[in-house]
Protein backbone atom coordinates (compact mmCIF):
# COMPACT_ATOMS: atom_id res chain seq x y z
CA UNK A 1 0.00 0.00 0.00
CA UNK A 2 1.36 3.37 -0.98
CA UNK A 3 1.53 6.09 1.65
CA UNK A 4 3.14 9.51 1.70
CA UNK A 5 3.95 8.99 5.41
CA UNK A 6 7.21 7.31 4.46
CA UNK A 7 8.24 10.31 2.32
CA UNK A 8 7.27 12.96 4.86
CA UNK A 9 8.88 11.03 7.70
CA UNK A 10 12.09 10.65 5.74
CA UNK A 11 12.14 14.34 4.80
CA UNK A 12 11.42 15.41 8.38
CA UNK A 13 14.25 13.22 9.63
CA UNK A 14 16.56 14.76 7.03
CA UNK A 15 15.60 18.28 8.09
CA UNK A 16 16.17 17.67 11.79
CA UNK A 17 19.42 15.75 11.37
CA UNK A 18 20.92 18.21 8.89
CA UNK A 19 20.00 21.20 11.03
CA UNK A 20 21.90 19.71 13.94
CA UNK A 21 24.83 18.63 11.81
CA UNK A 22 25.20 22.13 10.42
CA UNK A 23 25.51 23.35 14.00
CA UNK A 24 28.45 21.01 14.60
CA UNK A 25 29.96 21.94 11.22
CA UNK A 26 30.33 25.49 12.48
CA UNK A 27 30.77 24.84 16.21
CA UNK A 28 33.60 22.27 16.12
CA UNK A 29 36.00 24.20 13.82
CA UNK A 30 35.21 27.39 15.71
CA UNK A 31 35.86 25.64 19.03
CA UNK A 32 39.29 24.47 17.89
CA UNK A 33 40.20 27.72 16.13
CA UNK A 34 39.27 29.93 19.07
CA UNK A 35 40.89 27.75 21.73
CA UNK A 36 44.13 26.93 19.89
CA UNK A 37 44.41 29.71 17.29
CA UNK A 38 45.80 27.11 14.88
CA UNK A 39 44.40 26.56 11.38
CA UNK A 40 46.45 23.34 11.12
CA UNK A 41 44.92 21.89 14.30
CA UNK A 42 41.49 22.88 13.01
CA UNK A 43 42.22 20.94 9.85
CA UNK A 44 43.50 17.98 11.91
CA UNK A 45 40.19 17.71 13.77
CA UNK A 46 38.31 17.75 10.46
CA UNK A 47 40.60 14.96 9.20
CA UNK A 48 40.01 12.89 12.35
CA UNK A 49 36.26 12.96 11.76
CA UNK A 50 36.19 12.45 8.02
CA UNK A 51 38.70 9.59 7.64
CA UNK A 52 36.69 6.99 9.61
CA UNK A 53 33.47 8.45 8.19
CA UNK A 54 34.55 7.64 4.65
CA UNK A 55 36.08 4.25 5.45
CA UNK A 56 33.13 2.91 7.44
CA UNK A 57 30.62 4.24 4.94
CA UNK A 58 32.34 2.24 2.19
CA UNK A 59 32.50 -0.96 4.24
CA UNK A 60 28.96 -0.83 5.62
CA UNK A 61 27.11 -1.25 2.29
CA UNK A 62 26.73 -5.05 2.47
CA UNK A 63 25.50 -4.76 6.06
CA UNK A 64 22.88 -2.24 4.95
CA UNK A 65 21.64 -4.60 2.21
CA UNK A 66 21.49 -7.49 4.69
CA UNK A 67 19.88 -5.98 7.80
CA UNK A 68 18.01 -3.09 6.18
CA UNK A 69 18.71 0.59 5.77
CA UNK A 70 16.23 1.66 8.42
CA UNK A 71 17.91 -0.37 11.16
CA UNK A 72 21.36 0.93 10.29
CA UNK A 73 20.12 4.56 10.23
CA UNK A 74 18.40 4.32 13.61
CA UNK A 75 21.34 2.57 15.28
CA UNK A 76 23.83 5.11 13.94
CA UNK A 77 21.67 8.05 15.06
CA UNK A 78 21.36 6.68 18.61
CA UNK A 79 25.12 6.12 18.87
CA UNK A 80 25.70 9.67 17.61
CA UNK A 81 23.58 11.08 20.45
CA UNK A 82 26.08 9.70 22.96
CA UNK A 83 29.25 10.63 21.10
CA UNK A 84 28.30 14.18 20.15
CA UNK A 85 26.74 14.80 23.54
CA UNK A 86 30.00 13.82 25.24
CA UNK A 87 31.79 16.90 23.80
CA UNK A 88 29.84 19.59 25.72
CA UNK A 89 29.76 17.37 28.81
CA UNK A 90 33.54 16.94 28.91
CA UNK A 91 34.02 20.62 28.12
CA UNK A 92 31.85 21.50 31.11
CA UNK A 93 33.96 19.20 33.30
CA UNK A 94 37.20 20.72 32.00
CA UNK A 95 38.33 17.40 30.51
CA UNK A 96 38.07 18.20 26.79
CA UNK A 97 41.68 18.16 25.62
CA UNK A 98 42.60 18.08 21.93
CA UNK A 99 43.42 14.32 21.98
CA UNK A 100 40.07 13.56 23.62
CA UNK A 101 38.25 15.70 21.04
CA UNK A 102 40.08 13.87 18.23
CA UNK A 103 38.92 10.50 19.61
CA UNK A 104 35.31 11.66 19.98
CA UNK A 105 35.04 13.17 16.50
CA UNK A 106 36.68 10.08 15.00
CA UNK A 107 34.16 7.80 16.72
CA UNK A 108 31.31 10.07 15.68
CA UNK A 109 32.51 9.94 12.09
CA UNK A 110 32.77 6.14 12.28
CA UNK A 111 29.08 5.78 13.16
CA UNK A 112 27.79 8.61 10.99
CA UNK A 113 29.36 7.11 7.86
CA UNK A 114 27.25 3.92 7.82
CA UNK A 115 24.21 5.91 8.94
CA UNK A 116 24.45 8.42 6.10
CA UNK A 117 25.16 5.64 3.60
CA UNK A 118 22.05 3.79 4.75
CA UNK A 119 20.03 6.99 4.48
CA UNK A 120 20.91 7.19 0.78
CA UNK A 121 19.90 3.55 0.37
CA UNK A 122 16.47 4.28 1.85
CA UNK A 123 15.46 6.59 -0.99
CA UNK A 124 14.29 3.99 -3.58
CA UNK A 125 12.15 2.23 -0.95
CA UNK A 126 10.67 5.56 0.16
CA UNK A 127 9.91 6.45 -3.48
CA UNK A 128 8.20 3.09 -4.07
CA UNK A 129 6.18 3.26 -0.85
CA UNK A 130 5.13 6.87 -1.47
CA UNK A 131 4.27 6.58 -5.17
CA UNK A 132 6.15 9.71 -6.30
CA UNK A 133 8.62 10.16 -9.15
CA UNK A 134 12.32 9.79 -8.49
CA UNK A 135 12.99 13.36 -9.63
CA UNK A 136 10.37 14.73 -7.26
CA UNK A 137 11.70 12.75 -4.30
CA UNK A 138 15.33 13.67 -4.91
CA UNK A 139 14.37 17.29 -5.55
CA UNK A 140 12.42 17.50 -2.30
CA UNK A 141 15.22 15.74 -0.47
CA UNK A 142 17.64 18.30 -1.90
CA UNK A 143 15.35 21.12 -0.81
CA UNK A 144 15.13 19.69 2.71
CA UNK A 145 18.89 19.25 2.79
CA UNK A 146 19.37 22.89 1.90
CA UNK A 147 16.61 24.01 4.28
CA UNK A 148 18.20 22.09 7.14
CA UNK A 149 21.55 23.61 6.24
CA UNK A 150 20.02 27.09 6.09
CA UNK A 151 18.27 26.87 9.45
CA UNK A 152 21.24 25.15 11.03
CA UNK A 153 23.75 27.66 9.71
CA UNK A 154 21.72 30.68 10.79
CA UNK A 155 20.92 29.12 14.14
CA UNK A 156 24.50 27.97 14.68
CA UNK A 157 25.94 31.41 14.04
CA UNK A 158 23.67 32.93 16.69
CA UNK A 159 23.99 30.00 19.07
CA UNK A 160 27.79 29.80 18.98
CA UNK A 161 28.07 33.54 19.51
CA UNK A 162 25.58 33.45 22.40
CA UNK A 163 26.56 30.37 24.42
CA UNK A 164 29.82 29.12 22.93
CA UNK A 165 30.68 26.38 20.44
CA UNK A 166 30.87 23.45 22.86
CA UNK A 167 27.46 24.11 24.38
CA UNK A 168 25.94 24.51 20.92
CA UNK A 169 26.72 20.86 20.21
CA UNK A 170 23.91 19.85 22.56
CA UNK A 171 21.55 20.77 19.72
CA UNK A 172 23.33 18.40 17.34
CA UNK A 173 23.07 15.53 19.84
CA UNK A 174 19.35 16.17 20.31
CA UNK A 175 18.79 16.24 16.54
CA UNK A 176 20.15 12.70 16.19
CA UNK A 177 17.66 11.46 18.82
CA UNK A 178 14.71 13.04 17.01
CA UNK A 179 15.91 11.68 13.66
CA UNK A 180 16.14 8.16 15.07
CA UNK A 181 12.55 8.28 16.35
CA UNK A 182 11.16 9.62 13.05
CA UNK A 183 12.89 6.92 10.98
CA UNK A 184 11.92 4.14 13.37
CA UNK A 185 8.25 5.14 13.06
CA UNK A 186 7.94 5.93 9.34
CA UNK A 187 10.74 4.43 7.22
CA UNK A 188 9.98 1.29 5.13
CA UNK A 189 11.42 -1.94 6.45
CA UNK A 190 13.78 -4.13 4.39
CA UNK A 191 12.60 -6.46 1.71
CA UNK A 192 13.31 -10.14 2.25
CA UNK A 193 16.33 -11.29 0.29
CA UNK A 194 15.99 -14.30 -1.97
CA UNK A 195 18.34 -16.34 0.23
CA UNK A 196 16.04 -15.61 3.19
CA UNK A 197 13.04 -16.89 1.22
CA UNK A 198 14.48 -20.14 -0.13
CA UNK A 199 16.83 -20.88 2.77
CA UNK A 200 19.99 -20.86 0.62
CA UNK A 201 23.27 -19.76 2.26
CA UNK A 202 23.97 -16.06 2.16
CA UNK A 203 26.94 -14.90 0.07
CA UNK A 204 30.02 -13.98 2.08
CA UNK A 205 30.40 -10.35 3.13
CA UNK A 206 33.48 -10.02 0.94
CA UNK A 207 31.60 -11.21 -2.12
CA UNK A 208 28.74 -8.80 -1.42
CA UNK A 209 31.19 -5.93 -1.18
CA UNK A 210 32.98 -7.00 -4.38
CA UNK A 211 29.67 -7.21 -6.24
CA UNK A 212 28.94 -3.59 -5.42
CA UNK A 213 32.44 -2.50 -6.37
CA UNK A 214 32.36 -4.38 -9.70
CA UNK A 215 29.06 -2.78 -10.60
CA UNK A 216 30.26 0.71 -9.75
CA UNK A 217 33.60 0.55 -11.54
CA UNK A 218 32.10 -0.75 -14.80
CA UNK A 219 29.58 2.07 -15.13
CA UNK A 220 31.34 4.99 -16.91
CA UNK A 221 28.74 7.53 -15.77
CA UNK A 222 29.09 6.59 -12.11
CA UNK A 223 32.88 6.55 -12.43
CA UNK A 224 32.94 10.05 -13.96
CA UNK A 225 30.46 11.31 -11.36
CA UNK A 226 32.46 9.88 -8.48
CA UNK A 227 35.78 11.28 -9.69
CA UNK A 228 34.47 14.79 -10.22
CA UNK A 229 32.49 15.05 -7.00
CA UNK A 230 35.37 13.68 -4.91
CA UNK A 231 37.57 16.58 -6.07
CA UNK A 232 34.93 19.25 -5.54
CA UNK A 233 34.10 17.80 -2.12
CA UNK A 234 37.80 18.06 -1.17
CA UNK A 235 37.76 21.76 -2.00
CA UNK A 236 34.38 22.29 -0.32
CA UNK A 237 35.77 20.69 2.86
CA UNK A 238 38.81 22.98 2.77
CA UNK A 239 36.48 25.95 2.29
CA UNK A 240 34.02 25.17 5.10
CA UNK A 241 36.45 23.74 7.66
CA UNK A 242 39.26 26.28 7.37
CA UNK A 243 39.10 28.94 4.64
CA UNK A 244 35.68 30.33 5.56
CA UNK A 245 36.32 30.52 9.35
CA UNK A 246 39.74 32.14 8.76
CA UNK A 247 38.13 34.68 6.38
CA UNK A 248 35.53 35.47 9.05
CA UNK A 249 38.18 35.94 11.72
CA UNK A 250 40.48 38.11 9.57
CA UNK A 251 37.67 40.36 8.34
CA UNK A 252 36.17 40.68 11.84
CA UNK A 253 32.85 39.04 10.98
CA UNK A 254 33.24 36.21 13.48
CA UNK A 255 31.02 33.14 13.72
CA UNK A 256 28.00 35.23 12.79
CA UNK A 257 29.47 35.96 9.35
CA UNK A 258 30.10 32.24 8.79
CA UNK A 259 26.50 31.47 9.68
CA UNK A 260 25.14 34.28 7.51
CA UNK A 261 27.20 33.20 4.50
CA UNK A 262 26.12 29.54 4.76
CA UNK A 263 22.52 30.42 5.56
CA UNK A 264 22.22 32.72 2.52
CA UNK A 265 23.83 30.16 0.24
CA UNK A 266 21.69 27.31 1.55
CA UNK A 267 18.50 29.37 1.53
CA UNK A 268 18.90 30.09 -2.17
CA UNK A 269 19.71 26.41 -2.71
CA UNK A 270 16.37 25.48 -1.13
CA UNK A 271 14.60 27.49 -3.81
CA UNK A 272 16.76 25.90 -6.50
CA UNK A 273 15.98 22.40 -5.22
CA UNK A 274 12.24 23.10 -5.10
CA UNK A 275 12.34 24.30 -8.70
CA UNK A 276 14.40 21.23 -9.63
CA UNK A 277 11.82 18.93 -8.03
CA UNK A 278 9.12 20.51 -10.19
CA UNK A 279 10.92 20.57 -13.55
CA UNK A 280 13.65 17.96 -13.03
CA UNK A 281 12.07 15.41 -15.37
CA UNK A 282 11.79 17.98 -18.18
CA UNK A 283 15.10 19.87 -18.18
CA UNK A 284 18.31 18.78 -19.97
CA UNK A 285 20.40 17.26 -17.20
CA UNK A 286 23.83 17.61 -18.79
CA UNK A 287 23.57 21.28 -19.70
CA UNK A 288 21.95 22.17 -16.37
CA UNK A 289 24.61 20.30 -14.44
CA UNK A 290 27.57 21.97 -16.19
CA UNK A 291 26.13 25.48 -15.87
CA UNK A 292 25.17 24.96 -12.22
CA UNK A 293 28.57 23.63 -11.17
CA UNK A 294 30.33 26.47 -12.99
CA UNK A 295 28.31 29.03 -11.02
CA UNK A 296 28.91 27.28 -7.70
CA UNK A 297 32.70 27.07 -8.03
CA UNK A 298 34.96 30.07 -8.61
CA UNK A 299 32.66 32.98 -7.56
CA UNK A 300 32.65 32.25 -3.82
CA UNK A 301 36.40 31.78 -3.60
CA UNK A 302 36.91 34.92 -5.67
CA UNK A 303 34.70 37.29 -3.66
CA UNK A 304 36.07 36.11 -0.32
CA UNK A 305 39.67 36.02 -1.52
CA UNK A 306 39.39 39.58 -2.74
CA UNK A 307 37.76 40.54 0.58
CA UNK A 308 34.68 41.98 -1.09
CA UNK A 309 32.37 43.59 1.53
CA UNK A 310 29.79 41.24 2.99
CA UNK A 311 26.94 43.27 1.53
CA UNK A 312 28.21 42.35 -1.96
CA UNK A 313 29.10 38.78 -1.02
CA UNK A 314 25.53 37.87 -0.09
CA UNK A 315 23.96 38.52 -3.57
CA UNK A 316 26.67 36.30 -5.05
CA UNK A 317 25.69 33.66 -2.49
CA UNK A 318 22.11 33.81 -3.73
CA UNK A 319 23.10 33.12 -7.34
CA UNK A 320 25.49 30.33 -6.34
CA UNK A 321 23.01 28.75 -3.98
CA UNK A 322 20.16 28.71 -6.50
CA UNK A 323 22.42 27.01 -9.05
CA UNK A 324 23.65 24.53 -6.44
CA UNK A 325 20.06 23.46 -5.74
CA UNK A 326 19.94 21.71 -9.13
CA UNK A 327 23.11 19.64 -8.68
CA UNK A 328 22.23 17.01 -6.06
CA UNK A 329 18.78 16.15 -7.49
CA UNK A 330 20.41 15.47 -10.87
CA UNK A 331 23.20 13.39 -9.35
CA UNK A 332 20.82 11.40 -7.16
CA UNK A 333 18.32 10.68 -9.93
CA UNK A 334 21.06 9.51 -12.30
CA UNK A 335 22.55 7.25 -9.63
CA UNK A 336 19.32 5.60 -8.48
CA UNK A 337 18.19 5.03 -12.07
CA UNK A 338 21.33 3.05 -12.82
CA UNK A 339 21.46 0.75 -9.77
CA UNK A 340 19.28 -2.40 -9.46
CA UNK A 341 17.37 -2.58 -6.17
CA UNK A 342 19.31 -5.51 -4.61
CA UNK A 343 22.58 -3.58 -4.99
CA UNK A 344 21.41 -0.16 -3.80
CA UNK A 345 22.99 -0.31 -0.34
CA UNK A 346 26.37 -1.49 -1.55
CA UNK A 347 26.71 0.73 -4.60
CA UNK A 348 25.37 3.93 -3.03
CA UNK A 349 27.57 3.45 0.04
CA UNK A 350 30.66 2.88 -2.10
CA UNK A 351 29.79 5.78 -4.38
CA UNK A 352 29.19 8.12 -1.47
CA UNK A 353 32.34 6.99 0.34
CA UNK A 354 34.48 7.54 -2.74
CA UNK A 355 32.90 10.95 -3.29
CA UNK A 356 33.90 11.78 0.29
CA UNK A 357 37.27 10.00 0.13
CA UNK A 358 39.33 13.16 -0.27
CA UNK A 359 37.32 15.19 2.24
CA UNK A 360 39.45 14.12 5.24
CA UNK A 361 42.30 15.93 3.48
CA UNK A 362 40.18 19.06 2.93
CA UNK A 363 40.81 20.53 6.35
CA UNK A 364 44.52 19.78 6.04
CA UNK A 365 44.58 21.32 2.55
CA UNK A 366 42.87 24.45 3.82
CA UNK A 367 45.28 24.68 6.75
CA UNK A 368 48.31 24.30 4.48
CA UNK A 369 47.01 26.90 2.01
CA UNK A 370 46.48 29.45 4.78
CA UNK A 371 49.76 28.66 6.52
CA UNK A 372 51.87 28.86 3.36
CA UNK A 373 50.11 31.41 1.15
CA UNK A 374 47.72 33.30 3.40
CA UNK A 375 43.94 33.45 3.29
CA UNK A 376 43.59 35.52 0.11
CA UNK A 377 45.97 33.50 -2.07
CA UNK A 378 44.66 30.26 -0.58
CA UNK A 379 41.11 31.18 -1.59
CA UNK A 380 42.16 31.98 -5.16
CA UNK A 381 44.17 28.76 -5.58
CA UNK A 382 41.26 26.68 -4.30
CA UNK A 383 38.90 28.54 -6.64
CA UNK A 384 41.01 27.82 -9.70
CA UNK A 385 41.20 24.11 -8.82
CA UNK A 386 37.43 24.04 -8.35
CA UNK A 387 36.89 25.60 -11.78
CA UNK A 388 39.01 22.91 -13.45
CA UNK A 389 36.95 20.18 -11.77
CA UNK A 390 33.64 21.89 -12.57
CA UNK A 391 34.46 21.97 -16.30
CA UNK A 392 35.57 18.32 -16.47
CA UNK A 393 32.16 17.11 -17.81
CA UNK A 394 32.87 19.08 -20.99
CA UNK A 395 35.92 16.86 -21.62
CA UNK A 396 34.57 13.46 -20.50
CA UNK A 397 32.16 11.88 -23.05
CA UNK A 398 30.37 9.72 -20.46
CA UNK A 399 28.76 12.80 -18.92
CA UNK A 400 26.77 13.46 -22.09
CA UNK A 401 24.76 10.26 -21.51
CA UNK A 402 23.19 11.37 -18.22
CA UNK A 403 20.07 12.45 -20.10
CA UNK A 404 19.52 8.77 -21.03
CA UNK A 405 17.56 6.42 -18.81
CA UNK A 406 19.25 2.99 -18.76
CA UNK A 407 17.42 -0.33 -18.68
CA UNK A 408 17.55 -1.88 -15.21
CA UNK A 409 16.25 -5.27 -16.30
CA UNK A 410 19.25 -7.03 -14.75
CA UNK A 411 19.14 -10.19 -12.71
CA UNK A 412 21.20 -9.93 -9.54
CA UNK A 413 22.61 -12.83 -7.61
CA UNK A 414 23.99 -15.04 -10.40
CA UNK A 415 27.68 -15.47 -9.55
CA UNK A 416 28.76 -16.13 -13.12
CA UNK A 417 27.37 -12.90 -14.48
CA UNK A 418 29.23 -9.63 -14.89
CA UNK A 419 26.51 -7.32 -13.61
CA UNK A 420 27.95 -4.05 -14.80
CA UNK A 421 28.91 -5.34 -18.21
CA UNK A 422 25.44 -6.79 -18.80
CA UNK A 423 23.83 -3.44 -18.09
CA UNK A 424 25.73 -1.20 -20.41
CA UNK A 425 26.56 -3.52 -23.24
Chain-wise SSE layout:
Blueprint: H1 5-36, H2 39-59, H3 61-67, H4 69-92, H5 98-130, H6 134-163, H7 165-186, H8 194-198, H9 205-217, H10 220-251, H11 254-279, H12 285-296, H13 298-305, H14 310-324, H15 327-338, H16 344-355, H17 360-390, H18 392-395, H19 419-424
Describe the structure.
With 425 residues, the protein is mainly alpha-helical. The protein has one domain: Up-down Bundle (Growth Hormone, Chain: A). The protein is 81% helix and 0% strand. It has 19 helices and no strands.
Summarize the structure.
By secondary structure, the protein is mainly alpha-helical.
CATH hierarchy, class: Mainly Alpha
Spatial extent as radius of gyration: 21 Å
Question: Span between N and C termini?
Answer: 35 Å
Enumerate how many helices there are, as a single number: 19
Strand content: under 5%
Query: What's the total number of strands?
Result: 0
Structural class of the helices, strands and pairings? mainly alpha
Q: What is the count of structural domains?
A: 1
- CATH architecture classification name: Up-down Bundle
The level of helicity is over 70%
Overall geometric form: globular
Can you write the helix and strand succession as a string? Answer: HHHHHHHHHHHHHHHHHHH
Which residues sit in consecutive blocks of at least 5 with pLDDT less than 50? 194-198, 408-425
Q: What's the name of the CATH homologous superfamily?
A: MFS general substrate transporter like domains
Which fold does the CATH topology refer to? Growth Hormone, Chain: A
Biggest pleated-sheet summary: none
Amino acid sequence: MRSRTALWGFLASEAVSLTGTRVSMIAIPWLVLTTTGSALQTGLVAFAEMAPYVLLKALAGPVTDRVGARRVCVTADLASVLLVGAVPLLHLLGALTLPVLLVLVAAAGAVRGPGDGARYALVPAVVERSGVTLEKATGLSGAIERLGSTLGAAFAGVLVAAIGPAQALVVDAASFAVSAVLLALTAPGPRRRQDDVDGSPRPAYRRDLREGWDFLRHDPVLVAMTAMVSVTNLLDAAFVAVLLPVWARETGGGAGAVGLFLATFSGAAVLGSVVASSVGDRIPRYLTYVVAFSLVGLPRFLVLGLEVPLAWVLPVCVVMGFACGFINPILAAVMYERIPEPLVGRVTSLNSALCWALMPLGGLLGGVLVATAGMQAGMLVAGLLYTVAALSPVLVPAWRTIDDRPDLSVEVGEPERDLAGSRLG
